[in-house]
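ingest -> validate -> predict -> emit
validate: passed (alphabet ok, no gaps, 577 aa)
predict: started
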Amino acid sequence: LDLIKDDTCGVQLYQRFEQLEYEYEASVERKRNALAAADAGKGPVKKPRQQEIRGATIEEGKEAMKHGMNERFSEDKKTRRRKGSKNKGNLQITRKLGDATLHYAHGRYKEAASVLSEVVVQAPKLPDPFHILGLMYNSMGEKKKAMDCYMIAAFLGPKESSLWKLLVTLSIEQGNTGQAWYCIKKAITADPNDITLRYHFASLCMEMGEYHKAADSYHQIVQVCPDNVEALQTATMLYKKCGQFERTIGILEDYLKDHPPKDDPSVVEMLVSVYMERNEHSKALERIEHARRVFSCGEEFPLNLTIREGICHAHLGDLEKAEFYFSTLQKDNAKLRMGLVMAVANSFMSLQHYESALKYYLMLEGCASNNDLISVKIARCYSALKKSASAIQFYYKALQAREHDVDTRLTLTSLLMEENRDDEALALLSPPPNSALSNETDVDGSQPWWLNVKVKLKLSHIYKTKRMLEAYVEVMYPIIHESLTIDSMHQKVKQRKRLTESELLERVQVLGDRQTDSVFGNFRQPASKNVILKAHRAKKSLQKMATSKEEMKCAALAAGLDWESDDSEDEVPEPPL
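emit:
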């Protein structure tokens, strides 16, 4: 029971296990590198012990030695120990575990703890007593001790997936994401075919912003269940979000090698979308044409792929063929196919085919919920076609729905100025009559449009052009005054915080912290790289401080002066990050 402490000094048990595993793996890696160097003839190296078998874990080494020894000593096995001595010890432990279980079942927790303590002394690597202790503490309501006992039991029996799964559930319930992350990885190692665990792991990764690891988890689900299209789509979406387009394409291509496109056209569509995002429209077109050949004559080809086929032809310069594939999109069915119509219009817009883009944007006018966005796009098309009057009309229409859109307001102002409609431009940029009552920021943190600097600068430019100097000064003076105030504030250099010697000593403790009251006390307290870096800098600062003090002391004594040092006032500048 002394293994379970109430005071963990801020370090959780799973973090100590992580540190243990990290140090073990680092040690094994160093020995492997040394053996590799010896094989390459780079010099003598210390002979490894029996357990340090190159390229194998300790368990594999033990198994190999056990196999060899069984063959070598099969004849004189009886002479190495008295028959039944090992089984007798096992029977004693089994009997004590049974007694402890009975004590626990009848609520005699003190007696159960006493028996289990004896078992731990006799068999410290046996997970069963810690598991029973965890059950006992859980019944007593001591959740922290129960969790620690479960953790030790799982660590001693890493192949027991049920314990790791229990720890995952408890960690999630307690909101301990770090511990849940550690335990779920162990649970997956113990039971790699449990899909639910991999889904939980992917969710945890996404919560922590580890999108690449989440993508790997979903990809592993696909490898276990090749027909899981949902996991496939999520994995490719996350890989794409991480910028790994080649990986995304490879996964989708591998899936389509074993699954005909007609089984799930959405996978083909996703692959085509990735190619199109990379401007590889010829490859996208090849994939669509291959899918079209696979579909039988009587089967209807998916409309989404048909439209994407037309977009590919448009980007490859064959507008006539593109329009042929777009012929199914008409004004009367645009409301049902808004996404496809918008995709076609946006493609023509990006290709600067404004007439064609305008045709499809006009199909969506009045159909879409975001009609203000459609109005802006229509206005841009008219503006590019030098039809300013129509462009102004649609910009006004968009501005009615998005009053605080500064860019739309400024663009409309420029068009009005080009059409010599200066009064309208001034009215468009001038604050409303009741603006003095609403100069505060909105609930969402944004300022009213008339307080935007771009609007003020545009308005001042119009005043200056029209020789309205008084109005020009009234608008520009607050902007210039604010700019000068900010510049003067930036010129004041802020003094860097200085750290006292006691603060430096506190930082250095991370490097030498040992938990002497715990069985895991030989492992350094886990800390982030940033904290360790600060600790090393603090250590150097303390060394410099000590050297400086010694020099000052010697100089004072040499001059015949008394040396006095007030450590409480010693400060050094905080090392930069």
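The mean pLDDT is 78.
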